[in-house]
Amino acid sequence: MRTTLTKQKNFLLSLAVMAAIVFSACSEEKQETARSMEQIRNEDGVPVKVEKPVKKEFVKSMTFYAQLSGIRQTPVMGMVNDKIAKINAKVGDFVKEDQVVIEFPTDNPALQFDQAKAALDIAEKTYNRMKALLEAGETSQQNFDQAETQYLVNKRNYEQLNQLLNVESPISGTVVEMKHKVGDIVGQGKPLFTVAQLGQMKAKIWASEEEAAFIKNGMSSFILIDKDTLRGRVSEVTLTMDKDKRAFGVEILFPNPSRMLKSGVMTDIYINTYTNPETFVLKRHLINKDEKGKFVYVDLKGNAVKQYVKTGQESGVEIEITDGLDGSEMIITQGQALVEEGKKISVVE
After folding, report:
1. pTM assigned to the model
2. Does the structure show a pLDDT above 50 at 250?
3. Which of 51, 160, 172, 257 has CA 20 to 30 A from 82's CA?
C-alpha cells in the first residue's frame, strides 16, 4: 500500500517538473521572439512607406447652407376673395410677361365688373362722338374734355378690376409653384403662384462679421450636385449688418443653362476664400513640431531625417506648404510614429 502511494507521489512530482520545464521554455521563447523583433527594427530598419510631394491647387473654402431661387423670382398674391375659375398654366410651364395665369369669376357682386365694362363702353362711345363733333366744330372744347375725362376714368376703373380678376405673370419665366387648383377659394393677399427666371440661380447666405471679412465680390463659389460641381461667383456683399440676423447678407449667382439647379432647393454653398493654383499640400498628420519649428520625416539614405517646413493656410485635413520642400524629398507617410531623427528605416511597397 505504501509502495503504491510512493509511486503515485513520484509520478505527480515528475509531471510538475516537466510542466515547469515546458513553461520556462515557452517564456524564454517569447522573450527571444520579442528581442528578435527589436533586433529586426534596429538591424533592418523600421518598415515605412514613402511618397514624393506633388504640387497641386490648394483651395480654402467656407461652407454655408442656403436656398436657391431664380435670378428673378416673383410670387403673385390674390387681390380678391373668390373661387378660382380657371388656371392657364402648370408648374414647369413657361409664361410671358402680362400673360393671364389665373382667372376669377366676373360676376363677383362686390366688384361690379360687368357694370364697369358697361360704363366703359358708354363712355368710349360718348368720347368718340364728342371727338368727331369737336373736329366738325359742332361742340366746345370743354364738352370734349369732360367726355375724355369720363372715358379715361372708366377705362382705368375697368382695367384695375380686370387685373384683379385676370391675374397676369409679372415677368417672363417658368412657373415654379402653383398654390391652388380650380375651384379653390382664395383670400385676399394669399399667394397664388410663383414665376422665376431659371437661366441663372442665386443664393442668399448670411455670414458672421468674422466670415464676411474674408468674402469679397467676385470670389468663386460652387455647389456639389451628385458628382457634378456647379460653379458660381459672389455678386454682392452687404456693407451693413442685418439687425435681426446679426449677420451680413451675401448673394451668389450660378449659371444654370441646363436647369440642373432647382428653385427652392436647400443645399451647401461653398465659397473659395483662398486659392493657390500650385503648391505643395500635405495631410495634417504628417506635420510634426519641435522647438525648432514644424517638420516632416523624410527618407535620407535609409534613415529618417527631419525636414523643416513652413506652412500657410489650412483647409480641413490639408495644409499648404509655403517653404521647405522642392519635390525631390521622399516623405514618410506611414510608420512615422515609430521613427525618430537618424533612425534606420526600411521602405516597403
Report:
1. 0.66
2. yes
3. 172
